[in-house]
């Protein structure tokens, strides 16, 4: 997308960098995507055209309205409605990420809830909600988020929280900025891996409500440190 606004251009660059970070850190796979609300028009958001994430550049960014529609004639992700429906129902959200984060994925198909076990996972809240598509659509769906009605239900399941799981499918992270969402995605992956390991060892002691509240404020102030570290890893790998 061609746009002369420096503010928007910065968002495009952060979306590209975020995609590279998430790929490099093993959180995003071939079918993941990240978007950002238009800082100059909250009724619009930016998401790359339908491409393998490793190929995305700032020129591939498309602009969508909150119905998930665009005047750009290039191919668009079918799951763009996950983004549009969340932006529509959550005015506070500035960035949406959909992945199939490996360590988190098992919690999309087991009864054990994903709950925070260390200070780095305090942003999760007491537990991560799970959207169950079978509740309204039965057990013969493709488990996909490719329609506005299904994605409106995903947004409803998310509620006011920072993460929602799609049963037997994947993960949706949200936040106040691209950097915050990348930070949360990284530590959600770490938290899920830690919980899985802990469940194999003994009885798990989860964070208390007070720890969730207090630790969340402390850790949430460290977002730029994470972004700077992961960006440096991209440069060291020659893919910045």
Written description of the protein model:
This protein has 240 residues and is of the alpha+beta class. The protein starts with 5 loop residues before the first helix and ends with a helix. The chain contains seven helices and seven strands, in the order αβββαββααββααα. It has a seven-stranded mixed β-sheet with strand order 3-2-1-4-7-6-5, sandwiched between helices. The longest helix is centred in the last third of the chain and has 24 residues. The chain is globular. The chain is 40% helix and 13% strand. The protein has a single domain, classed as L-fuculose-1-phosphate Aldolase (3-Layer(aba) Sandwich), CATH 3.40.225.
| Approximate shape | globular
Overall SS class = alpha+beta
Strand order of the largest sheet: 3-2-1-4-7-6-5
- Report the portion of residues in β strands: 5-15%
CATH class: Alpha Beta
Radius of gyration: 17 Å
CATH architectural category: 3-Layer(aba) Sandwich
- The residue ranges in which pLDDT falls below 50 over 5 or more consecutive positions are none
Tally of DSSP helical segments:
7
> How many angstroms separate the termini?
20 Å
How is the main sheet built? 7 strands, mixed
Helix content: 25-40%
DSSP strand tally: 7
Order of helices and strands: HEEEHEEHHEEHHH
The CATH topology annotation reads as L-fuculose-1-phosphate Aldolase
CATH-defined superfamily: Class II aldolase/adducin N-terminal domain
Tally of structural domains: 1
What's the rounded overall pLDDT mean? 96
Keywords: Lyase, Metal-binding
Protein name: Aldolase
InterPro entries: Aldolase_class_II_sugar_metab, Aldolase_II/adducin_N, Aldolase_II/adducin_N_sf
Domain Class II aldolase/adducin N-terminal: 13-196
